[in-house]
Amino acid sequence: MTALTAPLIPTLPAGRSLRLGLRRIPLELKMYFRAGDQVFFTFLFPTLIYALFATVFSDQELPDGVSMATYYLPGLIAGAILLSGVQNLAGDIAVEKSDGTLKRLGGSPLSPVSYFIGKLGQVVVTSLLQLALLVGVAVLGFDAALPDTAEGWAIVAWVYVLGIAACSFAGIALSALPRSGKTASAVIIPIVLVLQFISGVYLQFSALPEWLQSVAGFFPVRWMAQGLRGAFLPESYAAAEQSGAWDLPLVAIMLAVWIVVGLVLARLTFRWIHKDK
């Protein structure tokens, strides 16, 4: 059977596509929270890891009075965005492609636009809830410090918006890699874990070899973590970055580049059914 691609699906009026997509968001949320393993590995996992790190290193304090609980928070926020966008979407779409869900949707009046509005809406809602839980635990449980200026919160906001968009499109593109729903987790989770380890989520980025820092620079999570550190940490900590500065304009540029790259890859690779069927 020839793979049915997005352009062959009948085009719906824009208003109807939007309405159908918005109606799918509650359905996508319901399916998301019904999957216990998905909730653990994409929703609760960053908060659990953060609580572990903050507890283990609770007796350590960094220069300028920065606690380890505060230091680890921006990296774990970046990791949470990565999980919500890449791991969540890549695994979910790969499974739906394998079990025939996408094939059935491809034969329905539902357009790809409506389908992805539902998916992206679910990602935005769950990621915001996830970050609210993570930050709440950090502040209430470990007395982590949050940005104390409007500029700091503005940085958090635009890093989140650009980061969740970049990771979502990358997740859609990555969903084409697993050959079946059964292998989706085995393919996607190691990629996501490696990216977190080399991008300053679990380890101090400045402690990594310079060549590994350069490799991490090809991927969005490194830039999300760097931008968020610029919002959460004192200016003196910028000296530990690879360039010796927060480089916030470069952070925005790299995340914007990844939005474009992810969108192009998603457009080229998305199929309602698997390409070899």
TrEMBL record:
A Pfam family hit: ABC2_membrane_3
Keywords: Antibiotic resistance, Membrane, Transmembrane, Transmembrane helix
InterPro entries per UniProt: ABC2_TM, ABC2_TM_bact-type, ABC_2_transport, Nod_factor_ABC_transporter
Cellular compartment(s): Membrane
Gene Ontology biological process terms in this record: response to antibiotic
Broad class of the protein's primary localization: membrane
This protein's record includes keyword Membrane: yes
GO molecular function, one term: ABC-type transporter activity
One cellular-component annotation, GO: ATP-binding cassette (ABC) transporter complex
Domain ABC transmembrane type-2: from-to ranges: 37-273
Domain of life of the native organism: Bacteria
Transmembrane portions of the chain: 39-57, 69-95, 116-140, 152-174, 186-205, 250-270
Protein topology in the membrane: Multi-pass membrane protein
Protein's name in the database: ABC-2 type transport system permease protein
Species per Swiss-Prot/TrEMBL record: Paramicrobacterium humi
